[in-house]
Amino acid sequence: MSDEYSHKNLKLVGRHLPEKHSEIVSAHERQTVELPGTYEIGAVIEGAFIPLARLKAGEVLDAIERAKQSDDEPDDS
Amino acid sequence: MPRAVVLNTASKASLTGGTFADTLTANSLDSLSIPNLPSGQGKIVRMWGIDSASVCELAVTDTRFESIHDQQYGLRYNIPATAFGGAGAPAAFPLIEPPASVPVYSGDTLTMTVTGTASDAVVVSWLSEYADLPGVQALFARWDQVQALRRTQLNARCAPVASGTKGAYGTARAINADDTRWTADRYYAILGFTVQIPVTTVSFRGYMWGNLRFGAPAGSPFLTTDNFFIDLSQRFNEALIPVFNGSDVGNVLLEVADSAASTSPKVDVIAIECSANPAVGA
Questions:
Q1: Digit-coded pLDDT (tens) for B48-71
Q2: Which of A35, A37, A66 sits opposite B119 (nearest CB)?
Q3: Chain A residues closer than 8 Å to B87 by CB
Q4: Which of B173, B262, B263 sits opposite A24 (nearest CB)?
Q5: Which domains are seen in chain B, by residue range?
């Protein structure tokens, strides 16, 4: 069955794509700030990144932070 | 007497978790209280909501049997937040949709509690219609009036960003901050908008609407937002298309709220430029 696949053992990868945003400081002044943007999870097929899911990066970064905090908590058992 | 349609949002950035253990609080400038209404009654014509990471259940209560039956659970609504590609992607699910509506009564207060997962954010927004709200003479038009006065159409970019605090509105952004093609003294009827990234709620605010919010969801089930206000107007057969004058463009403010922090949906506002005020006689 697996012989039917043209690509086997595909690698799942993720990439964070922050976004530049023009924030209004005053009527005559703007500043560029970086927003969390998006996080893409995908497979690399012959060097091409094929996105499978596009998530709000804020959610992903938040989940990573929570996981880190959970790992840091002392184990009472 | 002046009629008003008002958008409110309530949220909690990080749930404690448990059976209806968390109570949502009103966002900045918003309220869970029903204002004093000379007619005694208003109605919630649309409601939508989201949980940032897990499914959840919302209970909406107030003090009136005619509105919510009882105060134990009131009106219960599920939010299937993991549908449409998983948590974080859908941004908003419908809870109350036309032609259904829920009556609310003068001076009452809504309470929204949630059964959810610890650390999740929950955001709920709703549109209330008041047949008579003292102090407000909001500019809303019907679709046939807008069509009759159409000069041209203007689709303009505005890029508000959600707050870094989940569920809260971000900084207000004037509708002409990113696209200045609006013309002074022309009347504009906002038909709807499109977004690049789903977001729970897009709010419009300005003194032409009594400085109260008006708005719409822009989550995955609501991606046909281009004619949202026409659709709302036609479903209720009422003037529900917001109108403003181009001279006031700097005071038409867009804000967005989302269950994720700092979401940047990039709103393209779809407006009809009219030769006269389409809200007159609406």
A1: 999 999 999 999 999 999 999 999
A2: A66
A3: 59
A4: B173
A5: 4-130 (2.60.120), 140-274 (2.60.120)
User: Could B261 and A21 be called an inter-chain contact, meaning their C-beta atoms sit closer than 8 Å?
Assistant: no
Lowest mean pLDDT among A73-77, B1-5, B117-121: A73-77
Question: What is the Cα–Cα distance from B65 to B41, expressed in whole angstroms?
Answer: 13
- Per-residue confidence band for B202, with pLDDT thresholds at 50, 70 and 90: very high
H or E, element range at B202: strand B199-205
CA atoms of B183 and B30, how far apart (whole Å): 30
Q: What single-letter amino acid sits at A4?
A: E
**Percent of chain B beyond pLDDT 70?**
98
Distance CA B210, CA B6 (A): 9
Which residue among A22, A35, A56 places its CB closest to the CB of B88?
A56
Whole-number pLDDT of residue A76: 60
How far apart, in Å, do the first and last CA atoms of chain A sit?
46
pLDDT number for residue B22: 98
